[in-house]
Amino acid sequence: MTPRCYRIRVDGVLGDRFAAAFDAFRVDREDGSTVLSGVCVDSSAVFGVLERVKALGLDLLEVTSCPTTDHGRQIEPS
């Protein structure tokens, strides 16, 4: 699988403590939600990030792939 950029939107504005759990992602807070943007090397890496969202009790709103791969650092499978 070719590395792809992903945007993961969760409900609520994450504070710095929660955002630190996604240190490899760019964190943007907008309109009462938080958007995490980053490059995942494969589907295992994407699911690893989604597991972290679930483990933190965050409400997942949306997952989309970005048109480019220049957001954030690469996420390796966890």
Keywords:
78 residues; alpha+beta; Alpha-Beta Plaits; 5 strands; 22% helix
What count of domains describes the coordinates?
Answer: 1
Strand % is 35-45%
Tell me how many strands there are.
Answer: 5
Name the shape in a single word.
Answer: globular
Structural class: alpha+beta
Low-confidence stretches: none
Please write the string of helix (H) and strand (E) elements. Answer: EHEEHEE
Oligomer: single chain
**CATH fold category name:** Alpha-Beta Plaits
Can you describe what's shown?
The protein is α+β, with helices and mostly antiparallel strands and 78 residues long. The chain has a single domain (4-75), classed as Alpha-Beta Plaits. The chain is built from 2 helices and 5 strands. Strands 1, 2, 3, 4 and 5 form a 5-stranded mixed β-sheet that branches. β2 and β3 (33-40) form a beta hairpin. The chain is globular and about 30 Å long. The model has no long low-confidence stretch (mean pLDDT 87).
